[in-house]
Design brief:
With 379 residues, this protein is an alpha/beta fold. The chain has two domains: 1-113 and 307-379, 3-Layer(aba) Sandwich (Rossmann fold); 121-305, RecF/RecN/SMC, N-terminal domain (Glutathione S-transferase Yfyf (Class Pi), Chain A, domain 2), CATH 1.20.1050.90. The protein is 43% helix and 25% strand. It contains twelve helices and 15 strands. It has helices at residues 36-48, 57-60, 104-109, 123-126, 129-143, 145-169, 176-216, 237-247, 249-255, 276-279, 282-304, 321-330, and strands at 2-11, 14-20, 25-29, 67-76, 79-88, 92-96, 99-100, 114-117, 221-226, 266-271, 274-275, 309-313, 337-341, 354-361, 364-372. The longest helix is centred in the middle third of the chain and has 41 residues, at 176-216. Bound molecules: adenosine-5'-triphosphate and magnesium ion. Residues 36-37, 313-314 line the site of magnesium ion.
Length: 379
């Protein structure tokens, strides 16, 4: 799949935009604060209906205006589909081929598959565990509609269970049978989420070490999924989980919240036996996240049966030339990539067979170059 056309109206610093993108590589260059990140953000919102920067919808509307519109024409197996996200101050309307889609999950499930790498992604390693769980939840929700459904159910159960534990901690009366039913469902959903996350991390590990090596020439980068709840080798996981909750109920009552479950699980990133959060350099952390994101390409290909669109925001800054070239070498020819940079010289564009280059200045985009070295015209 690739994005053939992007049209914007009143999105951030774009009053209007209409560009045709290359099915392979697109480089967007310009000075700071000209709209490079905003352009990638609009594509992300087109695919996932929300900003990757976790901004409120109203912040995305050009200051002083009352709505924004994003429209994209996507080509997949030679078929064109039009996606639209129209948002005003009160509501957001999602459309596929002109038809309104009411349920966000139905839209996302049929929408563009996007893998984005952006500077704040470093927080996946440096930041709080919440950011890592959020990363897992976002990626898995794109890959599986079922994951999103189960995660929503899990969150509801967790909330109810916590309310019960708070009641118990205040010695208020509660329905013990109902609490046990909730705990039982909570364990079921926890187990499904755990298994799906664990499988996803296993799939990442099939590729991320190899990619990290190709970029940095350092071996044995891998990711570990850590849980305090589930014994992987147990014959009867559910029984053990229920026993664990039962054994620790006094502790949970004391805290008034659920202390075990996927909402407490963690990811750790290792280079050999060194935890990158503690020992990694800034560049290593950056490459670790980038390798993880690039490893997702294959997973998307397998699970969604289509090539995702890769958005790389400012990926080359702070990297030495060797690593820059290694990343470029790695960017597969068979997926669409959209890269932003402040310095075009930082990218050796001769390495690409097919590339469009756009200059961006104050929300205006001009195509400056189109290179087509061979006969491939579309994916
Ligand atoms: N809602 C909005 N309405 C109008 N302009 C906005 C809005 N939100 C952000 N901007 C403007 O967009 C510009 C920032 O754009 P963006 O973050 O895309 O820059 P950039 O080209 O990625 O810069 P850098 O190289 O520093 O990352 C700023 O000038 C900012 O004031
Ligand atoms: Mg930017």
């Amino acid at each position: 799949m690739y994005l053939e056309k992007l049209l914007l109206q009143n999105f951030r610093n774009y009053s209007s935009l209409n560009i045709k993108l290359n099915p392979h590589v697109n480089i967007i260059y310009g000075n700071n604060a000209q709209g490079k990140t905003n352009l990638l953000e609009s594509i992300y919102v087109l695919g996932l209906t929300k900003s990757h920067l976790l901004q409120l919808d109203n912040h995305l509307i050009t200051t002083g205006k009352e709505f924004y519109k994003i429209k994209g024409i996507v080509k997949k197996n030679k078929i064109k589909t039009t996606y639209e996200v129209n948002c005003n101050l009160n509501k957001k309307i999602l459309k596929i081929d002109g038809q309104e889609i009411k349920k966000i999950s139905d839209y996302i499930n049929n929408s563009l598959n996007i893998i984005i790498f952006y500077p704040e992604d470093l927080e996946i390693i440096k930041g709080s565990p919440n950011i890592r769980r959020n990363f897992l939840n976002l990626e898995l929700s794109q890959l599986s509609n079922n994951y999103l459904k189960i995660l929503n159910e899990f969150n509801k159960l967790l909330k109810i269970r916590n309310e019960y534990l708070k009641k118990m901690s205040k010695n208020q009366s509660y329905d013990k049978t109902y609490f046990n039913i909730i705990t039982n469902y909570f364990v079921d959903k926890s187990l499904i989420i755990y298994k799906m996350r664990k499988k996803f991390v296993e799939k990442l590990n099939e590729n991320c070490g190899k990619i990290f090596f190709e970029i940095t020439k350092l071996s044995d980068f891998h990711i570990e999924y850590i849980t305090n709840f589930i014994n992987e080798n147990s014959e009867n996981q559910k029984k053990e989980m229920l026993e664990k909750l039962d054994k620790n109920i006094e502790k949970e009552i004391k805290f008034g919240s659920t202390l075990y479950g996927p909402h407490r699980d963690e990811l750790e990133f290792f280079l050999s036996e060194n935890n990158l959060k503690i020992y990694g350099s800034q560049g290593q952390k950056r490459m670790a996240v980038l390798s993880t994101k690039l490893a997702e390409i294959d997973i998307f290909k397998k699970f969604k049966n289509t090539n995702p669109i890769l958005l790389l925001d400012d990926v080359f800054s702070e990297l030495d030339d060797i690593k820059k070239n290694n990343i470029i070498k790695y960017l597969a020819d068979d997926i669409q990539v959209i890269i932003t940079t402040t310095d075009l010289k930082k990218i050796n564009k001769k390495k690409f067979n097919s590339v469009n280059i756009f200059k961006i200045k104050n929300g205006e985009v001009i195509k400056t170059e189109e290179v087509e070295k061979d006969e491939r015209k579309s994916l």
